[in-house]
């Protein structure tokens, strides 16, 4: 977000939507002849969660009303960019990249199932439904109305969103979200958050990435893609991000200087097996991209967690070395399988 726009509220301010559309039109005009696949946003829910709900991202607010407005304006900006792209007739495809986190209830008890549905509406369908279907989920809209948090909007805005759905979808998947029904009444004096409708659930025996603290659930990628097939018109899609972050990965470097990351190979293998299965079942998923090519700098953790096929050795002026997983994946790509 340019600071000039952040100073007037960023995505809270409708002027940012206008500025974004102008920016998109400029990009299409300059590069549309060569670039034939465009994506309006990557993980648009992250600024909502981090910046306006859970205080882990600039501007570090906890304000549900502003969070809703930010989400709506971001979605509107995406639809207006799509509308502009089609008006300019550049003979390509345009979509959005969403980090989809399947919301699994603790069990089949109706209260737990309801908690899972609400979590899904907040964290997945809030952007997925308007992007692919042109409308916001009724469950979410009902909550916003009942709680008094509806955004400012016009009927024209809704019409633009309805008529400008995406051509293709990027899916970022790392871990599931597990929830259960609320076990205690929420504090009435606490700021309103989605968690007022569910509690996190820690599933016994879950498989974990011990180097990152995230659950590993490979079948989640299958569940996402089946959902897109059955409920979203089998939209053309691809896995745009999937990966395993490891803190302190230098300890796995051998005498030849190669990171022996068999854990990452196993992680990728198990996800690819589920993707292969869902392709056989008719999913329109077109590809798989690992996060990431080489160890990268994070906004929140710098180089703490390493994700790459190529290591970046900060003790040796950023020296690049292909990890064992990178050499393995090269063979997988060449053979179209393993």
TrEMBL record:
Per the UniProt entry, what are the Gene Ontology biological process annotations, in alphabetical order?
carbohydrate catabolic process
Q: Which UniProt keywords apply?
A: Glycosidase, Hydrolase
Determine if Hydrolase is one of this entry's keywords: yes
Q: Name the Pfam families on file.
A: Glyco_hydro_1
Q: What GO cellular component term, any one, is given?
A: cytosol
**GO function terms (MF aspect):** beta-glucosidase activity
- SUPFAM superfamilies recorded for this chain? (Trans)glycosidases
- Translocase as UniProt keyword: no
Q: Where is the active site?
A: 241 (nucleophile)
Please report which protein family the annotation says this sequence is part of.
Belongs to the glycosyl hydrolase 1 family.
Q: Please report the name of this protein according to its UniProt entry.
A: Beta-glucosidase
